[in-house]
UniProtKB/TrEMBL annotation:
Keyword Lyase in annotation: no
Topology of this chain in the membrane: Multi-pass membrane protein
Protein name: TonB-dependent receptor
Region (Disordered): 253-279
């Protein structure tokens, strides 16, 4: 067995109720404390095109600061994103990441789908809904805002949520960092920011390398990012944001439970009918350039205009077990909107956003025989064009600084064109698929019962068309009949805090009824394809608590505790394929509960200690609900020493991961053929880092 840690019972429904009641009680007691302690700044988010205090925002949003990203920083964004309730990031092997918000992992066996991602306000997700999140180096980000649940108000088609990535906060400094660790891990990065009177620029370079825990799991990435901004008048500025990423990672493939138990470090071995991952040199090669220009103009005191033009070019190669795939991908995006804000004597205010976003992506996809990692005879060659566009509008009003109400929506259009390239051997299934216009309305309100207690309610519609990787999966067969998934989400939430902002609790409960859910299946020849399940019933509860436990001059100068719990009752409904009826089975790949907590302590002598614990309940790995990944616990710790030396700051970092040496899979293969579900993750490992700031 590869999952052995079973000392703590999974959290059940009664425990959930008791936990929520305890948290509310603790926070209520904390509110009775005097406010002679340090008053902290309220969390402010910019997710809705202007800065808003998170506390009374009628949305379920989590904001991660630069400090949080750095404190949880490892070899990827995974540790910090897994501290967010409702979010689950996985790593099947170094560089092979998956991101799920509220169960969207179901249709994302590889990469990121069903989640809309923006980078510095530019759409990083292509027209078909696919996002190469693994291209970005984690040190290049200054903040992350995560909007949970379908949100088409400003961001168009999605049914999982929205992730907004912002590059590093501008500071006039030079940072140089290097680190190394177990399993051949090495990384270095250099950050430079300069600001002049009207012009500022940021440069970020990084290189990361790892041999990996398993055979055939080497990963390396070279990354360069820049942001240039010119304030050419007092009312207007123009900004360029972009990056180039050269990513290579090997894919060791899934193992059966027996194989993982006998030798978890092996790559997928050959069988009588198929070669192994090492023999086929299975892996991903992705060389991408992403960039865009954004122009901002203050039209008047209350009116603003934004417009951006961005694009992405990707050279993608994927030798895998059954064939060798090459892709030439190019995407173009235009986004523009007007914003208006007005206040009436502090008793009434409102804001209005109206805009349009257009994306066009062009994919040339060729499949060849894979002769031991070398392309052979051509099998298929297709040209796919995808065009999406949406109009959006949002109206928000605030009355007496207590009631905040929002009504918004987007009207979405989507079109696919399929054509054979001249060298194609397959001339079947080509043409166009044009979806009917889809309206994604959203209605939300938030009410402050007291200055420190807020209730919110949200009704929104989710919609997401299939990606090009689902319409044309690894079997290289085009399936134009695959339907978009859509449904309604109903949500209530409660926030409470102390006046000093030292304690903050956010609870959200939702019910998402999704129709035509897209599900991955794997054929006997090990190639994947996608089908529409009848739908899903997704009921969830999310709890986040941030607490400043101590501010003083004793042994603990400062102690902060963060906790995030997710409880998911996600089930299929009306899901029948042939003679198999999967209705009322658990949603594949979604655990019933996850629990994350971190304690960050500021010690004397400029020492900072961070400890993180993560728990995941057992998880169904196939639609039939006959194979499970067992529950596991992870424990990580980081010790940081900072020392100021005149005009230089020295930073030394020591990290230990999987301290309890648990055997587990950080990312499983869903509905895997031949029982090859498991991708064993690294055992106990360490890293050491050194940084200089000038």
């Amino acid at each position: 067995m590869i999952y052995t840690y079973k000392s703590v019972r999974p959290i059940n429904g009664l425990t959930t109720i008791l936990l929520v009641a305890t948290l509310i009680s603790l926070t209520a007691k904390a509110q009775s404390l005097t406010d002679s302690t340090l008053h902290l700044k309220p969390v402010v988010v910019s997710a809705y095109l202007s800065e808003n205090k998170l506390f009374n925002l009628p949305s379920t949003v989590t904001a991660l600061s630069k400090t949080q990203i750095e404190q949880n920083q490892g070899t990827s964004l995974l540790p910090v994103l897994n501290t967010v309730a409702g979010v689950k990031m996985e790593e099947r092997s170094p560089g092979s990441y998956r991101l799920s918000i509220r169960g969207s992992l179901l249709r994302s066996p590889f990469g990121v789908r069903n989640v809309k991602v923006y980078f510095d306000g530019l759409p990083l997700t292509d027209a078909s809904g696919n996002t190469y999140l693994n291209l970005i180096d984690q040190t290049a980000l200054g903040s992350i805002e995560i909007l949970k649940g379908p949100d088409g108000s400003l961001f168009g088609a999605n049914s999982g949520g929205v992730v907004l990535l912002s590059s590093q906060n501008p500071k006039q400094e030079i940072n140089v960092n290097g680190s190394f660790g177990s399993y051949g891990f090495y990384r270095e990065n250099v950050h430079l920011h300069k600001k002049h009177q009207r012009y500022q620029y940021t440069l970020n370079q990084a290189y990361q390398y790892s041999d990996g825990y398993r055979e055939q799991s080497l990963m390396k990435r070279w990354y360069f990012q820049t942001q240039q901004q010119l304030q050419y008048t007092s009312k207007a500025n123009i900004k360029f944001s972009g990056f180039y990423s050269d990513l290579k990672y090997q894919t060791p493939g899934g193992l059966t439970e027996k194989q993982a138990s006998e030798n978890p470090r092996q790559a997928r071995p050959a069988t009588a009918s198929a070669p192994g991952a090492k023999e086929q040199q299975a892996g991903i090669y992705n060389r991408s350039f992403f960039g865009g220009l954004t122009h901002f103009y203050q039209l008047s005191k209350s009116w603003q205009h934004h417009i951006s033009l961005s694009g992405m070019s990707t050279d993608f190669e994927n030798p895998f077990i059954t064939n060798y795939e090459k892709r030439d991908e190019n995407s173009l995006a235009l986004r523009t909107f007007f914003s208006h804000q007005h206040n009436y004597k502090n008793s009434l205010s409102y804001s209005l956003n109206v805009g349009y976003e257009y994306q066009h992506s062009r994919f040339k996809i060729r499949n060849y025989d894979n002769n031991g990692g070398v392309e052979g005879n051509i099998l298929n060659a297709d040209l796919i064009k995808n065009e999406t566009q949406f109009l959006f509008a949002r109206f928000k009003t605030e009355i007496s600084k207590r009631l905040t109400a929002e009504i918004s929506g987007s009207l979405n259009f989507n079109k696919f064109d399929f054509n054979a390239l001249p060298e194609s051997n397959n001339q079947q299934g080509y043409g166009s698929v044009k979806s009917d216009p889809e309206l994604m309305p959203r209605m939300a309100l938030s009410y402050l019962f007291t200055e420190n207690n807020a209730f919110r309610a949200i009704i929104s519609r989710g919609y997401a068309s299939p990606t090009k990787d689902e319409i044309r999966a690894s079997d290289a067969t085009i399936n134009p009949d695959l339907k978009a998934e859509k449904g309604w989400n109903y949500e209530i939430g409660f926030r409470t805090k102390t006046s000093s902002e030292r304690f903050y609790l956010d609870i959200a409960a939702f019910y998402y009824r999704l129709n035509d859910a897209i599900v991955r299946r794997v054929a006997a020849n090990d190639e994947d394809y996608y089908v529409n399940a009848g739908g899903t019933k997704q009921k969830g509860l999310e709890i986040e608590l941030n607490a400043n436990l101590w501010n003083g001059a004793s042994l603990f100068k400062k102690a902060d505790w963060r906790m995030a719990s997710t409880f998911s009752n996600f089930k299929f409904r009306d899901y029948i394929i042939g003679n198999e009826n999967y209705s009322n089975n658990r949603l594949t790949g979604v655990p019933k509960s996850t629990f994350s907590q971190s304690l960050e302590i500021a010690l004397p002598q400029n020492l900072n200690l961070g400890v993180q614990h993560y728990y995941q309940a057992k998880t169904s790995l196939n639609d039939a609900e006959t194979v499970f990944a067992k529950s596991y616990h992870l424990l990580n710790a980081t010790l940081i020493w900072n020392k100021k030396l005149k005009q230089t700051s020295l930073n030394i970092r020591l990290s230990a991961n999987n301290i309890s040496n648990v055997s587990y899979s950080l990312g499983n293969d869903l509905n895997a053929f031949g029982g090859r579900y498991f991708n064993p993750a690294a055992k106990r490992n360490f890293s050491f880092g050194l940084g200089l700031s000038l």
